[in-house]
Amino acid sequence: MRILVSWIGTTDLLSMANEANASVQKRVLAACQREKPLTGRGPIRSLVESVDFDAIHLLCNYPNNVGRDYVKWLGHGATLREISLENPTDYAAIFNCVDSFLGEILGKQKQPDLSIHLSPGTPAMTAVWVLLGKSKYPATFYQTYGDKHSETKIPFDLAVDFVPELIRDADSTLQHLANRSPQEIRGFDQILGDGKAIRLAVGRAAKAAIRDVAVLVQGDSGTGKEMFAQAIHKGSHRAAGPFVPLNCAAIPRELLESELFGHKKGSFTGADANHVGAFEQADGGTLFLDEIGECDPAMQAKLLRALQPPPGFGPTHRVFRRVGESKDRTSNVRVVAATNRDLMKRIEAHAFREDLYYRLAVITVKLPPLRDRSTDIPILAEGLLEQINAEFGKQEPGYKGKSLSADAIAFIRKFSWPGNVRQLQNALTQAAVMTDRDVIRKGDIASAVSESRVVEQDSMELPLGDGFDIAKHLDAIHRHYIVRALGATGGVKSRARKLLGVTSDQTFAAQLKRLGVAAK
């Protein structure tokens, strides 16, 4: 879909007035504050009569309905957007209206091919076009002189030349991003917390969201990587398109290719119908590849092919084949990947392709573990409990929301939360379900995380006597490290067992059963 956008300029209106009837000419000259019209076709008409566009959108800030007169005179099915600007050199006002306008018209298109006409309008309008066309809304630029036009090459790219370098230096140049809370940034309002660590992570992600570059979200299990991927999608110009999540670790190896690219009916046992894969489902939107580090080498090679646009195509042009087909398919997909693994170490161990890493990690966003967000934990707990109360209220008419006692909040703040936000949410959910009181207390949370005694500051210095039971205390320590390992591995028992140094699956299963720890 080839789309042209442009302001209607004074020269365009005066050229139209030269061919208009007396009443229209009078109205145009008054709006333009000129005494006579101009000869020639004007910048916009010169361009659209020489270059074919599927849609033409024109902005006009002139009074007296002269924009409507111009659209009627121009023809070509142009659409008018009338804008009220008190000052046509006000950069902020121009930016706000143009950003909103482009987001609206491009959000409805799956594969927009945007062209911007720079010649009409004020210098401030031209500057805003260049800024947006080289960043958030990639575009081809045109200029006209006389009745001739030319495609204009602007020799820099904000996404390639400036933005990645800026984002990678978060500790210095991006400190200003920590001045804004997530709730103030479009698309990120569901991210709970207000500490510096989470503000910087949100600032990096929001900066990355403005362009169609690949983003790799890194962080421990349970830190909210999918929520960040959704926020990047919502903060981008693709927000109106689909967001398709796919967990690469949760799908059997032999089925992952089909889930990514689709398959043809009869291509393998069980393929009873054609299947549309994630790359097609996400056309025009964002594909989230969770646990990307778990892909085997053969799947990595196939992913690399799909992520390498052919020469001459944009960064989100994907080429792939359904399983069982011999013909390539294409889609327009922005990819956000996530992992809790150190991919650079995986590359050194020859377990992950270096070329695939650099395709996925054009920009990286590192999410802080909950233990590094101590100031956020009370806010996060209150916010999560509010969400839990709202959900339970929908399920159970008359449900009375729970609140947290002071000692429960102190407990939550002290605990290390090895499973991060996911573990905190699970503990709050269990406490809300199990307690009959309106207030959740320390014991309710301690029971939910199986940590009735180990949560003390120094578990090696607990007072003896007065009910002290060494067997229970050691079981609590044992349970703590098992829960921590399961949290770090997303609940995968085989990987948690290795982290703990347990050599036998049978032994580990017996430990889980004896200590009452659930795992998948």
If you had to describe this structure to a student in words, what would you say it looks like?
The chain is of the alpha/beta class and 520 residues long. It is built from 21 helices and 15 strands. The chain has a six-stranded mixed sheet, with helices on both faces. Strands 8-9-12-7-13 form a five-stranded parallel sheet. The protein has a two-stranded antiparallel sheet with strand order 10-11. The model is unreliable at 165-174 and 451-458 (pLDDT under 50).
Describe, in short, the structure shown.
The protein has 520 residues and is of the alpha/beta class. Helix content is 42%, strand content 13%. The strands form four sheets. A six-stranded mixed sheet has the order 3-2-1-4-5-6, sandwiched between helices. The protein has a five-stranded parallel sheet with strand order 8-9-12-7-13. A two-stranded antiparallel sheet has the order 10-11.
